[in-house]
Amino acid sequence: MSETTTAVLDGAGAPARARSDRSKLIGGLAQAVVGAYGLWSFGLGSRTAHGVHTLFTLKLTPGADGGPGPVSVPAAATALVLSALAIGCGLVRAFAPISARTQRWLAVGYFAAFVLAFLVWAEAGSSVGLNVPSTIQQTAMGTVPLLLGSLSALLCERSGVVNIAVEGQFLFGAFSAALTASMTHSVWAGLVAGCLGGALMGALLAVFANRYLIEQVVLGVVLNLLASGITGFLYDRLMSTDGNTYNSAPGFNALSIPGLSSIPVIGAALFDQNIIFYAAYLLVPVIWFLLYRTRWGLRTRAVGEHPTAADTVGIKVIGLRYRNVITAGLLSGLGGVWLTLGLANQFGKDMSDGKGYIAIAALIVGRWSPVGALGGAILFGFATELAVPLSDLGTPIPGAFLSMAPYLATIFVVAALGGLVRPPAASGKPYVKS
Known about the structure:
Blueprint: H1 3-43, E1 53-57, E2 71-74, H2 75-95, H3 100-123, E3 130-131, H4 132-158, H5 166-184, H6 187-210, H7 216-239, H8 243-246, E4 255-256, H9 267-270, E5 272-273, H10 275-293, H11 295-305, H12 307-312, H13 317-344, H14 355-365, H15 370-385, H16 387-390, H17 399-403, H18 405-417
Parallel strand pairs: 1-3
Antiparallel strand pairs: 1-2, 4-5
Helix pairs in contact: 1-2, 1-3, 2-3, 4-10, 4-13, 4-14, 4-15, 5-6, 5-7, 5-13, 5-14, 6-7, 6-13, 10-11, 14-15, 14-18, 15-18
């Protein structure tokens, strides 16, 4: 390569490097400032003063025989150490010459330290304390729909189609599952109907995005509104007037895994769940293997990055996008089945409650990978269920703010990590065969 060419490439990359360095500095300083607030509020505030302790209960059912006893830690000292760790993570990100990968791990450490400091502060002085197994269980259950929606969006975006319609696929899957299971008294019929309901919404997305070249973000929002309108109308006409017939679905029974369910702290919380719960987490390694170790995965990634090049080597771009988007609808439909047959045993208007959008944010935070999507879904699942263990502790945080926690966490995390991720190059770009 000539010196002139090298200079041109370096000149072209300089603005990008400058933006990255500026984002790194501002993001790190912002984290340090928030951590300093935590140091002052959590470690030095009145709630942790006077030597109070924070109690962590390690049994899912307090008072049950066997298992480890509760753990008590000094609230002020623990909150100070964790807040200082969060400040350190922010300062290292801001000023140390570290790679993007290291920045991501620092972000994980930062959020973990700050959240733990907050929990120590919130539970300080409580005689009940934080039930760790219950919190783990609620987080794992809250993660399930976010994970399924995130994997659905992953299949679409890796194929070059933006799936904003996850929310509508949740709704349609949940409604179809509840209605079918109520009328047939079969959870398996409801499972099939719910997945097919999500696939139907996925088929609409595939047709309008690939054949009619509708702008995909706008199309996804429209499909969400369509699902909300149809399910709301049918709920008013059928379920609210005759709930015993149309909205009293049976639910999946819990399946305890021998050996694993007896592990202290996490056993009963994670290994005494229903089949949809297990399927959601098992899909992560399955999709990872299919995406990175199979011919289908190679073709999918090629279509999502450079569809023209994929077409020239014989890959049917449009056909692959159709198949993947409809399959993604099946996954979102399964997320809807979880909301009804896995949890509530009945359908409610707009019961997805924004989880489809949070699932997409989890995918962005997870850098469009199955394992990353799992991490993002766990993070937002924890934020979604945070109000449950804090609701009875008398914290000065209003209940409305606790309800806002998942959405605030979504904005904050995406803003902090958004500059470190890159979507598939062809995501959202219609392909027209020349």
